[in-house]
């Protein structure tokens, strides 16, 4: 590795000239969707680490929160025989790609992973008994972000129930502050909707969105979920259609809006704007979800490269770096997440991250640790897509809750 690092540095400085061609540094083409301020800073840590190790980082960033556009680009690349070295893939989609026979195992660098990962997550990154993905961090999805000055102005406190939430939203409205910042994109609609499903209890969430239990999906309680979403929607602005999530976060950062429902990658934006939790903003679990935790774990998979049977040296180095304690710490500090690797020192993390970590432990013990549907952790792509369509259609029309529930029950049968 040392030799490679030296070679890399010399090549970068142009000192090896023609001699270097025989030892050309391996290029790593990396497909991801981390393009917001906080996200770019976080992925920049990996880029710098790999460059220091002598590899050439070829950034293949495809903008678009939650990665729908990135996933389309990836399919095109793979079909045309130009699979990237690594791509941001997570949840059941890892298995779907592995089944295509295009991924390479990375077991040779994963010797200590099992002992250092929560079992739920260790399972997700395996296919056919081999490690095929390297996990970055754990994002909690069920958060509400609140501007602290706005909160103080209206004399409010972070809501823990829906009635408290609507009372606070009314106060913001009366004070001329947009109560809820949102971006009208399908995945953002689904993020809010799954938050409200979770507020009915982790068991309800599991039955509905993990087991796809028809009785739960068609229950009166589920009709109530859509009613609540409709009511929350009435506190959003008309300009939200197509707005990116980070622009909605910016509305909370600058006090134009009071609150945003978003996973803690939003914290990466607050951090990037030098805002401190407790002073500038408040992180609170979505009303009714204090003991539950929707998890979203980003990971990279590694594609077989032309003329190679197994993972290349660069792919293995990438996987190894992603799971190293130093990288895990710095990445999450920028990203708003917490390290997925167990036992990483949390002393440099802010109170929201510490709360995330503590709540994660509580939720794991109490059975409230559930995979996020909106972020590709709970269902295969086709099922998640069909449910997303139902929720987005509901939020962009005047459809009544009962017929949305009927559509939901049908969508859940999509395979
Ligand atoms: C999520 C992803 C996060 C964050 C977010 C917005 O699906 O897991 O890392 O990037 O999308 O783009």
Automatic annotation (TrEMBL):
Xref: InterPro entries: Bact_solute-bd_prot1 (IPR050490), SBP (IPR006059)
Keywords: Signal, Transport
Family, per entry: Belongs to the bacterial solute-binding protein 1 family.
UniProt KW Transport keyword: yes
Subcellular location: Periplasm
Record's signal peptide: 1-24
Cellular component GO terms held in the UniProt record: periplasmic space
Function: Part of a binding-protein-dependent transport system for a sugar.
The protein's name: Probable sugar-binding periplasmic protein
Organism the protein comes from: Paraburkholderia acidiphila
The keyword Transport is annotated on this UniProt entry: yes
